[in-house]
Design goal:
This protein is of the alpha/beta class and 252 residues long. 44% of the residues lie in helices and 14% in strands. The strands form two sheets. The protein has a four-stranded parallel sheet with strand order 1-2-3-4, covered by helices on one side. Strands 5-6-7 form a three-stranded parallel sheet. Helix 7 links the parallel strand 6 and strand 7. Helix 1 runs parallel beside helix 2 and helix 4 runs parallel beside helix 5. It starts with 13 loop residues before the first helix and ends in an 8-residue tail after the last strand.
Length: 252
Amino acid sequence: VSYLASPFFPAQWMEEVIATLAARGVQVIRMWAEPWCDLDRMERMLDLGGQYGVRFILTLQDFYGHTDGYWFKQEFKTKGLPHINNIVPRFAERTEILMWELMNEPTCPAEDADRACWEALYNWAQVTSQQIKKLDPNHLVAAGTQRAGFEPRAIEAFRRIHTLQTIDIVSVHGQAGKLDQGERELEQSIAHELGKPIYFGEVYHRGLDEDCRPLPQATLDERAAAIASDLERLPATGIDGYLLWQYAYGAV
């Protein structure tokens, strides 16, 4: 529920979302905890998590719309680190937090995917994860990555980032129903090689058409079957977490 603490989502609806998901057996909610989020509201959200038995993955930045290659090279020092220094100490003792994510899907964009950007991406992950661990040694830290990619430099950066001692768990995103087809097999092998757990922070499967209308019931049934198949296979694949993208509150 990426928008759970966002300013545009009414705070009075938070409890209904958390209670509804908890009643369906959801154990973890992933949400954006960006610089413009109200920390008092987030405190209330964590209280509700404790009340309903739900924990949170707090994602500190979103790559899309706010960052680019320059962010990793320089801008995070003036915008990312101050946010970390503000939010992390405040919630360092909260047991409702499962982990911190550095960013949603950090990557080097196609127009800036040279060695300098991948090196900067690694340095950014190193500096920011070290700062979080310094302020909060109690919680897991993940990079929030989507995949290793296909280019050698991207794969090398993915491996190096997850080799960091301050990155505790490997993050991937993928499509539902693909575990039988080796979805994120490379990333799983890297995680197992490093002896670190791995989780799907986003599992997607379309339920709406281009006009935001629900797809036919047969398609939705196929989606449910794909998710069920993945969940049955999780123990055999060594996947430690599986979060669906994403809960839509109310009318779309």
